[in-house]
Amino acid sequence: MKRNMGSTGPARGRGVPWRNVCLVTWGVFLCVLCYELFPRMEGAWSKTPWGREQPWQGGIQTFKKQAENVALADLFHPAPRLKLDPRRMDRSRTLLWFRDRVSGGLETANSWPNAVLVHALIDSAEPRRGEIEKYWNQLIGPGGKWLDPPQLLSHCMVGMPLLEWHQRTAEDRYRVAAERLVEWLLVTHPRSPSGTLPYRPEEPNILLVDSLGMICPLLARFGREHGRPEAVALAKQQLIEFLDNAIDARSGLPFHAYQVGGGTSKKAFGLAGWGRGVGWLALGLTGTIPWLTPEDPDRLRFEVALRDLMNGVREHQREDGLWGWALNIPGAEPDTSATGMLAWVLRRGVQSGSLMREEFEGVQRKAVKGILQYTTSTGEVGQSMADAAGVGQYPWLFGHTTWTQGFAVLAAGGLSDE
């Protein structure tokens, strides 16, 4: 019988696609493996003399310009909601990547970290109008209508940058957009039993210190500028209730939260002295005071509360200029996010006259110099405490975060190189 010499040809041809599939599979596997191992390799490399980030060497004004470039990149770079979330550290980076993009795990455009970033860019001596308006176009339409309406109280922190940009450009859509945020807070957002605004709609009895810095300045400013006294009244009520119920009598520092119980009972809880919590209260006070009339009796109370708070803050400043993640815990890890917030408060308080320049400008400068110690040569700020997972849940994780980049830029404003 004769052999069919051509029978082997088709057999080889049928095997070629399988080899390609195997090669592609191995290629994908190697890519995923490298993606998973990259953070560990990067961390090990950064500890070597060749891979270590070069520290910042310039002055404050040069830092501000470089840091603004990083802030702009952070504003438009999609990132997980919690860039430094300890709950993500032990999970597959590949699965998280897919989950973030499929299930909406990326930072929303109207998030409070983005509000801090755009505020920092607007604050610049030469604001980048094109990039800032590109950001606004992601949020609002031509008539000021929100493309993605607010769902959380924290989404309203972007209202203050909107008013700042309206003041610079006189374009009415920015005022309209801010007005709709205020209207949502006044009418739609759930209220606590005492009539204040809780941080989370699903927890109407829990009021967090975070909310004070996020919404009180917006309510006070819009109410004063556009004749909405009920907005000013709500801003004052938020602050007064917190000052009455959530300040630690021993240290004078705020608790993280308080709970409104049945009747008029209120109970404070969480850590008293959490660095960013002190910053949120201080931002609420210093952002509200300028929009109260001189005759308003609550203005004097808020000014006294701000001075007392910042005098206490000054006593807890470290030798290197930074504040720890917990102000009143000796040896607490330094935190550039709390430091940036508090330095920005000092700047605003001095500018508005609520704080004496001769007493606090030096404290602000020392804090900014402390931040520079944890800044790379490209202007990226590190040593920021990660986002808190909840009241009393403070992560032992520090690195670069978007909100700290914005706070650092704002803190450096108004300071010249010595």
Report on this model:
Helix 12 packs antiparallel against helix 13. A hairpin with a 5-residue loop joins strand 2 and strand 3. This protein has 14 helices and 7 strands. Mean pLDDT is 86; it is low at 5-11 and 80-90. The N and C termini lie far apart (100 Å). It is 54% helix and 5% strand. It is globular and about 80 Å long. The strands form 3 sheets. The chain has a 3-stranded antiparallel beta sheet with strand order 1-2-3. The protein has a two-stranded antiparallel ribbon with strand order 4-5. It has helices at 8-46, 60-76, 93-102, 112-122, 129-139, 159-169, 172-188, 210-225, 229-245, 275-288, 297-315, 336-352, 357-372, 402-412; strands at residues 206-208, 257-260, 266-269, 323-324, 334-335, 384-385, 398-399. The protein is mainly α and 418 residues long.
Concise account of the structure shown:
The protein is mainly alpha-helical. It contains 14 helices and seven strands.
Keywords:
globular, 14 helices, 418 residues, three-stranded antiparallel β-sheet
How many strand elements? Answer: 7
User: What is the overall shape?
Assistant: globular
Helix content: 40-55%
| Unreliable stretches covering 5 or more consecutive residues | 5-11, 80-90
The radius of gyration over CA amounts to: 25 Å
Average predicted local confidence, pLDDT? 86
Strand content: under 5%
Give the SSE map.
Layout: H1 8-46, H2 60-76, H3 93-102, H4 112-122, H5 129-139, H6 159-169, H7 172-188, E1 206-208, H8 210-225, H9 229-245, E2 257-260, E3 266-269, H10 275-288, H11 297-315, E4 323-324, E5 334-335, H12 336-352, H13 357-372, E6 384-385, E7 398-399, H14 402-412
Antiparallel strand pairs: 1-2, 2-3, 4-5, 6-7
Helix pairs in contact: 2-4, 2-14, 4-6, 4-14, 6-7, 8-9, 8-10, 10-11, 10-12, 12-13, 12-14
